[in-house]
Protein backbone atom coordinates (compact mmCIF):
# COMPACT_ATOMS: atom_id res chain seq x y z
CA UNK A 1 0.00 0.00 0.00
CA UNK A 2 2.80 2.36 0.92
CA UNK A 3 4.62 1.76 -2.36
CA UNK A 4 1.46 2.60 -4.26
CA UNK A 5 1.23 5.89 -2.35
CA UNK A 6 4.84 6.70 -3.24
CA UNK A 7 4.13 5.94 -6.89
CA UNK A 8 0.93 7.98 -6.87
CA UNK A 9 2.73 10.94 -5.31
CA UNK A 10 5.50 10.74 -7.88
CA UNK A 11 3.06 10.57 -10.79
CA UNK A 12 1.03 13.44 -9.38
CA UNK A 13 4.11 15.62 -8.91
CA UNK A 14 5.34 14.91 -12.42
CA UNK A 15 1.91 15.68 -13.83
CA UNK A 16 1.75 18.88 -11.80
CA UNK A 17 5.14 19.99 -13.10
CA UNK A 18 4.19 19.33 -16.70
CA UNK A 19 0.85 21.11 -16.34
CA UNK A 20 2.37 24.17 -14.68
CA UNK A 21 4.39 24.94 -17.80
CA UNK A 22 1.29 24.89 -20.04
CA UNK A 23 -0.84 28.04 -20.09
CA UNK A 24 -3.85 26.70 -22.02
CA UNK A 25 -7.29 26.37 -20.42
CA UNK A 26 -7.41 22.57 -20.34
CA UNK A 27 -3.92 22.48 -18.83
CA UNK A 28 -5.10 24.85 -16.12
CA UNK A 29 -7.95 22.47 -15.36
CA UNK A 30 -5.56 19.50 -15.23
CA UNK A 31 -3.25 21.48 -12.98
CA UNK A 32 -6.03 22.28 -10.50
CA UNK A 33 -7.27 18.70 -10.51
CA UNK A 34 -3.76 17.35 -9.97
CA UNK A 35 -3.11 19.89 -7.24
CA UNK A 36 -6.31 18.84 -5.46
CA UNK A 37 -5.32 15.19 -5.80
CA UNK A 38 -1.90 15.84 -4.24
CA UNK A 39 -3.47 17.77 -1.36
CA UNK A 40 -5.95 14.93 -0.76
CA UNK A 41 -3.11 12.39 -0.80
CA UNK A 42 -1.00 14.42 1.63
CA UNK A 43 -3.97 14.79 3.98
CA UNK A 44 -4.61 11.05 4.06
CA UNK A 45 -3.03 8.82 6.70
CA UNK A 46 -1.23 6.83 4.00
CA UNK A 47 0.19 10.00 2.47
CA UNK A 48 1.43 11.32 5.83
CA UNK A 49 3.01 7.96 6.64
CA UNK A 50 4.66 7.81 3.22
CA UNK A 51 6.21 11.27 3.68
CA UNK A 52 7.43 10.37 7.17
CA UNK A 53 9.09 7.23 5.82
CA UNK A 54 10.66 9.19 2.97
CA UNK A 55 12.14 11.73 5.38
CA UNK A 56 13.58 8.92 7.51
CA UNK A 57 15.35 7.36 4.53
CA UNK A 58 19.11 8.08 4.71
CA UNK A 59 19.50 8.33 0.94
CA UNK A 60 16.67 10.87 0.80
CA UNK A 61 18.29 12.89 3.61
CA UNK A 62 21.60 13.01 1.75
CA UNK A 63 19.84 14.04 -1.45
CA UNK A 64 18.07 16.88 0.37
CA UNK A 65 21.35 18.08 1.87
CA UNK A 66 23.10 17.96 -1.52
CA UNK A 67 20.26 19.83 -3.22
CA UNK A 68 19.98 22.48 -0.50
CA UNK A 69 22.17 24.97 -2.39
CA UNK A 70 20.24 24.43 -5.60
CA UNK A 71 16.93 24.87 -3.78
CA UNK A 72 18.15 28.06 -2.09
CA UNK A 73 19.36 29.55 -5.38
CA UNK A 74 16.09 28.62 -7.10
CA UNK A 75 14.04 30.23 -4.34
CA UNK A 76 16.17 33.39 -4.45
CA UNK A 77 15.79 33.68 -8.23
CA UNK A 78 12.05 33.11 -7.97
CA UNK A 79 11.55 35.67 -5.22
CA UNK A 80 13.61 38.34 -6.96
CA UNK A 81 11.96 37.86 -10.36
CA UNK A 82 9.25 40.22 -11.63
CA UNK A 83 6.60 37.54 -11.15
CA UNK A 84 7.90 36.88 -7.64
CA UNK A 85 7.69 40.56 -6.71
CA UNK A 86 4.15 40.80 -8.07
CA UNK A 87 3.16 37.70 -6.11
CA UNK A 88 4.51 39.06 -2.83
CA UNK A 89 2.91 42.47 -3.37
CA UNK A 90 -0.45 40.81 -3.91
CA UNK A 91 0.02 38.31 -1.09
CA UNK A 92 1.17 40.90 1.48
CA UNK A 93 -1.88 43.01 0.66
CA UNK A 94 -3.92 40.30 2.39
CA UNK A 95 -3.96 41.19 6.15
CA UNK A 96 -4.28 37.55 7.26
CA UNK A 97 -1.37 36.39 5.11
CA UNK A 98 0.79 39.35 6.19
CA UNK A 99 0.01 38.65 9.87
CA UNK A 100 0.90 34.97 9.46
CA UNK A 101 4.23 35.81 7.79
CA UNK A 102 5.03 38.41 10.45
CA UNK A 103 4.31 35.96 13.29
CA UNK A 104 6.33 33.16 11.70
CA UNK A 105 9.37 35.44 11.24
CA UNK A 106 9.07 37.42 14.47
CA UNK A 107 12.21 35.98 16.10
CA UNK A 108 14.26 36.48 12.94
CA UNK A 109 13.06 40.08 12.64
CA UNK A 110 13.91 40.80 16.29
CA UNK A 111 17.41 39.35 15.86
CA UNK A 112 17.90 41.37 12.65
CA UNK A 113 16.77 44.60 14.31
CA UNK A 114 19.10 44.02 17.28
CA UNK A 115 22.03 43.53 14.91
CA UNK A 116 21.06 46.60 12.88
CA UNK A 117 20.80 48.78 16.00
CA UNK A 118 24.46 48.01 16.68
CA UNK A 119 25.46 49.09 13.16
CA UNK A 120 26.75 52.72 13.10
CA UNK A 121 25.59 53.20 9.49
CA UNK A 122 22.06 52.07 10.36
CA UNK A 123 22.06 54.31 13.44
CA UNK A 124 23.00 57.26 11.23
CA UNK A 125 20.16 56.46 8.82
CA UNK A 126 17.71 56.34 11.72
CA UNK A 127 18.91 59.71 12.98
CA UNK A 128 18.42 61.21 9.52
CA UNK A 129 14.88 59.83 9.42
CA UNK A 130 13.99 61.11 12.89
CA UNK A 131 15.44 64.55 12.16
CA UNK A 132 13.39 64.92 8.99
CA UNK A 133 10.80 67.71 9.59
CA UNK A 134 8.05 65.85 7.73
CA UNK A 135 8.72 62.70 9.73
CA UNK A 136 8.64 64.68 12.99
CA UNK A 137 5.25 66.10 12.03
CA UNK A 138 3.94 62.61 11.29
CA UNK A 139 5.25 61.34 14.63
CA UNK A 140 3.65 64.24 16.51
CA UNK A 141 0.35 63.62 14.75
CA UNK A 142 0.51 59.90 15.54
CA UNK A 143 1.29 60.54 19.21
CA UNK A 144 -1.79 62.75 19.52
CA UNK A 145 -4.12 60.26 17.86
CA UNK A 146 -6.79 58.45 19.85
CA UNK A 147 -5.66 55.05 18.58
CA UNK A 148 -2.07 55.58 19.74
CA UNK A 149 -3.17 56.76 23.18
CA UNK A 150 -5.45 53.76 23.57
CA UNK A 151 -2.61 51.46 22.53
CA UNK A 152 -0.23 53.10 25.00
CA UNK A 153 -2.83 52.81 27.76
CA UNK A 154 -3.15 49.10 27.04
CA UNK A 155 0.63 48.64 27.01
CA UNK A 156 1.00 50.48 30.34
CA UNK A 157 -1.81 48.43 31.87
CA UNK A 158 -0.27 45.15 30.70
CA UNK A 159 3.13 46.27 31.99
CA UNK A 160 1.76 47.20 35.41
CA UNK A 161 -0.18 43.94 35.65
CA UNK A 162 2.91 41.93 34.73
CA UNK A 163 4.22 39.82 37.67
CA UNK A 164 7.80 40.61 36.64
CA UNK A 165 7.12 44.35 36.72
CA UNK A 166 5.40 44.06 40.11
CA UNK A 167 8.40 42.17 41.50
CA UNK A 168 10.78 44.88 40.25
CA UNK A 169 8.64 47.64 41.78
CA UNK A 170 8.55 45.75 45.07
CA UNK A 171 12.34 45.44 45.08
CA UNK A 172 12.72 49.17 44.36
CA UNK A 173 10.34 50.08 47.20
CA UNK A 174 12.19 47.82 49.64
CA UNK A 175 15.54 49.33 48.65
CA UNK A 176 14.12 52.85 49.00
CA UNK A 177 12.79 51.99 52.47
CA UNK A 178 16.17 50.59 53.50
CA UNK A 179 17.96 53.72 52.27
CA UNK A 180 15.48 55.95 54.10
CA UNK A 181 15.99 53.93 57.29
CA UNK A 182 19.77 54.21 57.03
CA UNK A 183 19.59 57.98 56.47
CA UNK A 184 17.23 58.41 59.43
CA UNK A 185 19.48 56.41 61.71
CA UNK A 186 22.54 58.36 60.57
CA UNK A 187 20.77 61.67 61.24
CA UNK A 188 19.83 60.65 64.78
CA UNK A 189 23.40 59.60 65.54
CA UNK A 190 24.69 62.98 64.34
CA UNK A 191 22.14 64.82 66.49
CA UNK A 192 23.11 62.69 69.49
CA UNK A 193 26.79 63.43 69.00
CA UNK A 194 26.11 67.18 68.80
CA UNK A 195 24.09 67.14 72.02
CA UNK A 196 26.85 65.38 73.93
CA UNK A 197 29.42 67.89 72.70
CA UNK A 198 27.26 70.82 73.83
CA UNK A 199 26.80 69.28 77.29
CA UNK A 200 30.54 68.84 77.74
CA UNK A 201 31.20 72.49 76.88
CA UNK A 202 28.67 73.74 79.48
CA UNK A 203 30.29 71.65 82.26
CA UNK A 204 33.69 73.23 81.61
CA UNK A 205 32.39 76.72 82.50
Query: Describe the biggest sheet?
Result: none
Order of helices and strands: HHHHHHHHHHHH
Helix tally?
Answer: 12
Number of strands: 0
Number of domains: 3
Segments where pLDDT lies below 50 for 5+ residues?
Answer: 1-5, 19-25
| Percentage of residues assigned to helices | over 70%
How far the N terminus sits from the C terminus, by CA atoms, comes to: 117 Å
Strand content: under 5%
Indicate the structural class: mainly alpha
Q: Which of globular, elongated, flat, extended, rod-shaped describes the shape?
A: elongated
Roughly what is the average pLDDT, rounded to an integer?
Answer: 72
Give me the Rg, rounded.
Answer: 34 Å
Keywords: Signal
Region (Disordered): 180-205
Pfam families: GerD (PF17898)
Biased composition (Basic and acidic residues): 180-191
Amino acid sequence: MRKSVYLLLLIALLTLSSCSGNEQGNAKLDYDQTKKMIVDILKSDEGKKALQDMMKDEEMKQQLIMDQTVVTETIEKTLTSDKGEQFWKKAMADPKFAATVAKSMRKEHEALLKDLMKDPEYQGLLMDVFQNPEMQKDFAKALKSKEFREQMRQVVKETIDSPLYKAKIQDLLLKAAEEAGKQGKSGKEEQGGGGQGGGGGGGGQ
